Amino acid sequence: MNTTFPFSAIVGQEAVKHALMISAIDPGVGGVLVLGDRGTGKSTAIRALASLLPPMQTIKGCQYQRAPHDQHQCACQACRQDTPEIVERAVPVVDLPLGVTEDRVVGAFDIEHALNTGEKRFQPGLLAAAHRGFLYVDEVNLLEDHIVDVLLDVAASGVNVVERDGISERHPAKFVLIGSGNPEEGELRPQLLDRFGLSVEVHTPDDLQERIEVVSRRGEFDLDPEAFVLRWKKNEAKVRRRIVSARSAIQQVVISDAIRATVSRLCIELNTDGLRGDLTLLRAARASAALQGSPQVEASHIVQVAPMALRHRLRRDPLDEVGSSVRIERALSTLFDADAA
Amino acid sequence: MNHDAVGIEMDSLPPQDQIGVLLALHGHRLGGAVVMCQDDPLRAERWLSRISGWRSVVYPPATTIRTPVHCPPEQLLGGVDLIQTVLCGHTVITQGLLEQANHGWLLLPLAELQPSDSVRAVCDAIDHHRAGEHPVSICAIAVASAADLSQLTSGDRAVDAALLDRMAFCLDLAKDKRDTLNQQQDDVLDKSITSALRTAQHWRSVTIDETLTERLCVVAGALGISAIRAQLHCAMVARSAAALAGRSEVDSGDLDVAMSLCFAWRAQALPAHEAPQSDSQADQPEPEPPEETQADSPLSMPHEHSDKHTCDDTGPADDTAPASDEVIHVPLPERLLASLQSANAMVTMGAGKTGRVGQSRKSNHHGRCIGIQRYQPGRGHKVHLLATLQAAAPWQAHRRHPPQGTPGRPVIKPQDIRAGRYKQATQTVVIFVVDASGSAAQQRLAEAKGAVELLLNECYVRRDEVALIVFQGARATLVLPPTRSLVTARRQLTELPAGGGTPLASAIDQAGELAAVVRRDGNVPLICLLTDGRANVDRHGIGGRARAMDEAKQAARKLAETPTRSLLIDIARRPNAGARELATALGSAYLALPRADAGSINRAVSEVMPPRAERVSAA
Ligand SMILES: [Zn+2]
């Protein structure tokens, strides 16, 4: 088993880390799209986050990692036992391999079983494996359209329905979709963009000190991963505690009418497409407030998360050279300066 | 550690041996090397067999796996071999080349011709030490026919930039004069190299001073090398160079060697105007004169390989729609219809003008398998192996008594053989979701049925498929799965009894699930929801208006997340806020039945559905 680079040891990449933590606190925010150059460690961050999260309880041997008290019935062998054994396991991070077939994603007819027993049986796919965890798609912009549609559909509904090859199967598949891509290698379809809750950009650090820090930490890790992980254990525990307490506090975080009004004014100001911008921004701000231990959503939380919640929802004017993030920042400062005045 | 072991200074070796000894020490940590050898690929083989020989003195012997020239990703990753599986009667898994190359070398001849999916599989193996689900540890040797760095990074001999990014080294074997050494010198050299490899076993404990790390980063920055990976490779190489020389600390000479091996070729691949001259660059050795490659390299990292992925990109981004608010506030059909299209383009990413409908799709070259039929020879049918096995499977136990054929193999009879039905054009499937509850019945169920009939006529003209979901009482029921038979649909509808509660949430859930199935088959779903929007039964079939309404809206919002066009026809006696809010939550067009004569319904549907011509152009 490969040792994972500690989440807290990742240098810089604040936006990515923040977005991933939000998605871990409130999966309902929707997936995270990470855009950036090759070799910026996009997949490191998500793996690191998943291995930091507290393990989840599940029925031993269940193919769908069902939670012990999930009222949804599960048809698997393990769950049908009278007293199923409860075990702990790490939060799954499932990678969508390259050139993956739809069968592999949604699950398919189990040939081996059919040949040996003459029975039809469903063999769960990657969507089942990602249940209650993360599904990571590297270079989501290069993935075939129909696979992307399946992923987004199931991510939104939380249920995988398979009706084909004489198989009729439905099982829960609640996961946070993390897509990464390098826009230079293929534009993302706009209609795919705004189905991700949050979107962040990563760059190779410009700052020399930061680069040096990256090189020395990675170097240390590569030499002796176990020792490195041990050194970061305390910091990891700190982040874990923050996420766990944010998860339990989030329902109590108050969103005032004033904040709601501000958010809708911001979205009108930016002319974002659809209602999803508003809702995602509020949810993300709430998760962010919970993460920072705040009892209510403040303007500062909106300012923090507005770029990641909205930048991929702005309509692009081909003649407008100004980047989305800049437009959001401008709108934010106009809005909050006006409020202060 | 062996006390007789002596170190070796990197400076004393030609580049190909420098790279060779570093790869022999731990090539799997360095990704590998891209090797240019122009017209003589055997140079690379000879070079690799020498370093493989060095490595085997210190480590267990390493295998060399050569991939075919156009290696499909399945061959790299392995998996179920269907033919063998049928023949043997049990699942036969073939081992992929990556797994076979575990702890050894993966040689990619004519690397520039490798399909990009295969390249990505190799990159994945290098990055995450895995091939599919199997752990692997490989060192890749990409053999390129490019004559120089500019050909390596752009033009028709360019190697995939993603692969170049993973490689620590680039070696030009056509120019390297290592081959001129004689046998005796070789033997001596081999001895000292293997002895150095023994010495270098302590490489993990080699330290690198912070000022050297800083220098490394400064130089990378000055050379315009932003990739962190190259800098990590460089640090690792510096450490290894020190270890090979028997030092416990990296000195500036080690770093210089590392930078010349890891940075120089990347810097030269940059455009001339972007490679700045700096002090730090001046004092690092250049293995090759830069002028021969810099002048004519117009681009840094090429992206040719990605062109084919972008070809089905959607139209310009300004096709996207204005905000949705217009939809709800416009009561008149005409203005409603005008905004319908744009509003739907906004909420229904997959099916709008900017979506995939009407576009040629990259996966379309064999068409999309949409179903299975019995195989009939002479009709151009393509055998569908999986379906064939599936058809034969239930009979196996029966057919084996008395035993027929070879024991352990499935007995497949001609009647088992299945062929796929392949689809060329995208089909629209209209999913009617009809509220047959008591409240709706008292209102205008009859008129609703009439409206659906009108729409069915439209569907007939368009050759659309239809499905019917009816909801009443405790739950929603799929009365008619997607079908071409509009007659059946009409009959089902006419005979529809009315009464009971309004389980709106279940209805929306079920419509959404069916839409997903439709989409998955490569078709375009269109949901047409006829209701008064007065939910009073929740998902569990329990009565209660507040909870039922909440759940209905929740279900609607969930459905709105998917790329499904929808139309809500309000069948209440008077248009009501509930239905309209529901339409908003659904992101769907809203049409109040009272104002809907036959014509306006037709127009509404025409607006929601893409024109026929556009839909078939995917064929
Ligand atoms: Zn189970």
Describe the structure.
The complex is a heterodimer of chains A (341) and B (619). With 341 residues, chain A is of the alpha/beta class. Chain A has 2 domains: 7-55 and 90-202, P-loop containing nucleotide triphosphate hydrolases (Rossmann fold); 251-336, Magnesium chelatase subunit I, C-Terminal domain (Helicase, Ruva Protein, domain 3, Orthogonal Bundle), CATH 1.10.8.80. Helix content of chain A is 45%, strand content 14%. Chain A has helices spanning 14-25, 42-52, 102-106, 111-117, 126-129, 145-157, 190-193, 208-223, 225-231, 233-249, 257-270, 276-291, 299-310, 324-340, and strands at residues 32-36, 56-59, 86-89, 93-95, 108-109, 122-123, 133-137, 159-164, 167-172, 175-181, 198-202. In chain A, the strands form 4 sheets. A 5-stranded parallel β-sheet of chain A has the order 4-7-10-1-11, with helices on both faces. In chain A, helix 1 (14-25) packs across helix 2 (42-52), helix 1 (14-25) crosses helix 12 (276-291) and helix 13 runs antiparallel to helix 14. The longest helix of chain A is centred in the last third of the chain and has 17 residues, at 233-249. Chain A is globular. Chain A starts with 13 loop residues before the first helix and ends with a helix. In chain A, 49% of the residues are buried. The mean pLDDT of chain A is 85. By secondary structure, chain B is α/β, with parallel strands linked by helices. In chain B, 43% of the residues lie in helices and 15% in strands. Chain B has 27 helices and 17 strands. Chain B has a 6-stranded mixed β-sheet with strand order 14-13-12-15-16-17, sandwiched between helices. In chain B, helix 2 crosses helix 9 (183-199), helix 10 (210-222) packs across helix 11 (228-244) and helix 21 (438-462) runs antiparallel to helix 22 (486-494). The longest helix of chain B has 25 residues, at 438-462. The termini of chain B are far apart. At the A-B interface, strand 5, helix 4, helix 6, strand 8 and helix 7 of A face helix 3, helix 6, helix 8, helix 10 and helix 11 of B. The structure holds zinc ion. Zinc ion binds at residues 59, 62-64, 66, 74, 76, 78-79 of chain A.
